[in-house]
Amino acid sequence: MKKGITLLAAMALCAALAAPAQAEDTIKIGVAGAHSGDLASYGVPSLNAAKVVIADVNAKGGILGKQIELVAQDDQCKPELATNAATKLISDKVAVVMGHICSGATKATLPLYTDAKIVSMSPSATTPGLTEDGNNPYFFRTIANDKAQARLTSDFMLNNLKVKKVAYLHDNGDYGKGFVDNNREHLEKAGVKTVLFEAITPDAVDFSAVVRKLRREQPDIVVFGGYQPTASKLLQQMRRDRVTTAMLGPDGLMDEAFIKMAGKASEGVYSSYPKDTSNLPAYKAAREGHVKMFGKDPGSFYYNGYAATQALVNAIEKAGSTDTAKVVEALHAAPVDTPLGTLTFSKTGDAAGMALSIYQVKDGKFVELDHSIVLE
Known about the structure:
5-stranded parallel beta sheet, alpha/beta, disordered N terminus, 22% strand, single chain
């Protein structure tokens, strides 16, 4: 009996000692975002980007002598689900996280990643406070924040559209309200009149009350803050009720799903988005990788997700370690060539080196206009 117990104990000890070794056989990269639900058109392209980058790196032998393991968690862009996703990724001992996708979800998770000392990098969360307040030293992003976007869009409205009266509608979220707040600040300083500033309910099916206000106030443009499903429904009702006012929104409108949902109502809509870099070899390689793996062109924020995954992998390789302090140091010190251009990261984690442009829907497609800025 004693021999049996001793043998079992020895086997248990061997299993316990073997477990950490197995866990260290790969470098785990977490990927968190809306992989299902209404906002999956934002999250799935970024997930696909991580799959393409990781497959390519692994095919070339991996990094630090190990293969990369992708660990995905779906948060549907909901803060309460995002904290659950972050907790699971932390318990899975991921080295870094590419995500989250939406600003509200990202904001909810950062205290968890900060406590765990895990680097996270979002391809699409734009709220300025995510980097500005200095409370998130392990957070980075490969997207322009709302202040940079507002600098571009407000300048476009002032100098190209010559607007005098503006209506602001937003979904009251971190992303949506942040975008309209920053535009309003710029435009009111320039003497533009605010004729309407109102929050709308994203899940509403009837926007007739706010549409009547638009008809009464007759603004030169509607500045919308929020995601494409809400913008699509709002625009359709505006056009049905013969309100022809132009709309301008953030990068979240730059999505083929928006054009499909809004249909003809999307014609003429303006949006900010990263400048077209399709002439870059890195962009072509990223696109080809997606077509090869998934058989079609990528969706919105794919290239931002690709750049974020590249930056994280590059930093681990340059650091020669998954140690968080060394990865952070490498992210600040080592430029990385991406489909968006050669990126560096500021002290606060914002990307520099990429450019933003204004796009407009023309004949059912987003067309880049000759109006852009470069992030510094």
